[in-house]
Amino acid sequence: MIRKKVLNVNKTTSNKLNSLIKPTAFVNMIFMFLVLLMGALVTKTESGRGCGDDWPLCNGKFVPAYTIESMIEYSHRFVAGLAGMLMLAVFVLVFLTNARKEVKWYASGGLFFTILQAILGAMAVVWPQSSPVLALHFGFSLLAFSLTLLLALAYTKSGSSSQKTVMSSGLRMGIWLTTLYCYGVVYLGAFVRHTKSSGGCLGWPLCNGQVIPELSGETGIVFAHRLAAIGMLILVILLLATVSKTYKRTDSVYKWSQWSLIFVVLQILSGALVTYTMGYDSYLLASLLHTLLVSCLFGMLSYLTVLAIRAKQTEVAGVRAAERS
Question: Do 157 and 167 share a structural domain?
């Protein structure tokens, strides 16, 4: 009798915890997305030194003096802190409810990169870092966001690991290559921001009125980013063309590949918008839109890699079943 009551209590507690995970995971994903956008805002407004070299305080105070730079920087820290606490809460909930193995990987990875980007952010304040290191800060924040996105999707119907996908090894490799390449493009874009090289190419699609400009300094950095973006477009077009030969339009692999192409086109157009709005008030908004779109694009490609991993697991399971029979 006592054992039955204990089991009922445990079951009730488990159900309550399970009901908390999904909404908490989605809220956490939204906050991590805000951290990305606010980090880009800090960079674009040059507010990184808005709190001096103090961390976690701002110019030695818990509540900073009202200046635009200090408020932007401190707001970013505040939202990042909330995102960190939410990530920790989700991590605990996932392991308390004995979630699927892949979900535990998302939670663990999300927590790791959240802590890592926070440490890098603190180090950038206390000890000024080089542009390559500062660009890594955005890259790690993007990984943290992508993992929280995958974690949230894991608690939706489409994100269920019960889905079985068959995929060729060539397509799996193509998905991984495209995702890793996208991360490289993102890093290069962050490097453009942190080196303040956006003005290196005036005009679009030409750079300073030339098809191939002088490849040095700020111009060389921006032009390399543009070439990388074109390469990204080509890769995603090839990916969708390959997927369309095998999958129906209703399949998840096709849908996510199609949306990836839409967002890579929007990403390139937003890059043109950034160029055209330089010197205008709308430049900041265009830059944030550019960041928003590339974050969504990388999130979509990350989910495609999950589908590729599941397809590999399905293939391995099928081979082992054939061997046993």
Answer: no
- Give the gyration radius of the chain's Cα atoms: 22
> With 60 as the cut, is the pLDDT of residue 325 above it?
no
181 shares its domain with 155? no
Same structural domain, 152 and 210: no
User: Are residues 41 and 151 both part of a single domain?
Assistant: yes
User: Three-class SS string for the chain?
Assistant: CHHHHHHHHHHHHHHHHHHHHHHHHHHHHHHHHHHHHHHHHHHHCCCCCCCCCCCCCECCECCCCCCHHHHHHHHHHHHHHHHHHHHHHHHHHHHHCCCCHHHHHHHHHHHHHHHHHHHHHHHHHHCCCCHHHHHHHHHHHHHHHHHHHHHHHCCCCCCCCCCCCCCCHHHHHHHHHHHHHHHHHHHHHHHHHHCCCHHHCCCCCCECCECCCCCCHHHHHHHHHHHHHHHHHHHHHHHHHHHHHHCCCCCHHHHHHHHHHHHHHHHHHHHHHHHHCCCCCCHHHHHHHHHHHHHHHHHHHHHHHHHHHHHHHHHHHHHHHHHHC
In this structure, the answer to whether residues 191 and 286 fall within a common structural domain is: yes
| Catalytic-residue membership of 69 | no
The arithmetic mean of pLDDT across residues 142-161, rounded, is 84
Q: Is the per-residue pLDDT at 267 higher than 60? A: yes
Catalytic residue among 46, 69, 73, 218: 73
* Domain range enclosing 149: 1-161
pLDDT of residue 164: 62
Residue 6 banded pLDDT, cuts 50, 70, 90: very low
Same domain flag for 9 and 44: yes
pTM of the complete model: 0.86
* Domain count within the chain: 2
Residues 312 and 179 occupy one common structural domain: yes
The reported pLDDT for the residue numbered 52 is: 67
Contact 220, 200 (CB under 8 A): yes
Residues linked to residue 58 through DSSP beta bridges, in sequence order? 61
